[in-house]
Amino acid sequence: MKFNRILLKLSGESLAAGTGHGIDTTRLNEYAAQIKEMTDRGVQIGIVIGGGNIFRGLSGASSGFDRVKGDQMGMLATVINSLALSSALEAIGQPAQVYTAIGMFPIGEQYSKWRAIETLEKGGVAIISCGTGNPYFTTDTGAALRAIEIEAEVMMKGTRVDGVYTADPEKDASATRFDSISYDEVLARGLKVMDLTATALCKENNMPIYVFNMDIPGNLAKALEGDSVGTLVTCD
Fold first, then answer.
1. How far are the Cα atoms of 93, 96, 199 from residue 134, in angstroms, in the given order?
2. Going from the N-terminus, what domains does the chain have, and what CATH number goes with each?
3. What is the pLDDT of residues 149-194, one digit of tens each?
């Protein structure tokens, strides 16, 4: 394996599998199978999931919700997705523990770096919900923070696109994919790998990001084996 401990960032929208809302059980089970395959091979996996398939704080704010309350609603949406993924993992024999950045016992255990690492070292999957626990921060920033905290070697950002492109490949047919790119070039080109706060946090702490399409079964294994199925973003 190319990496022994990773933080896997999954989008809530991907869990909806094109339906726009809710959780598609086929997609959920595909994710669980990919994750278990890697833990069976000794990879330690922490996970942060977005909540956009259920509620997005920014969208709520634009609809008249108070921004802080809207972001808190988004945090709760990430807990629902985390519970769904933990259930799918446990159903196939993979231990998983849901951690929450805000107190929510018995739904999840209050997050701490050391408890999450203990779970990883015992072969369990640590699913860390509620983002950073604070409003005005995205789950991308939450994932960057948790990747650094749990001492992951890389943050794997699973998306519906197979890497970072010169332009949006869904809108520009001439867009080309990078095999690797630096944070500085990402910022200079204005490429939307993650929001600026998350990108800066990863850059400052030398946390590489690997962007790949998690929706294709087997891609997580290929990425961890070193196959070029995405884009690696580094400080170099």
1. 33, 24, 18
2. 5-234 (3.40.1160.10)
3. 999 999 999 988 889 998 888 788 888 999 999 999 998 888 888 9
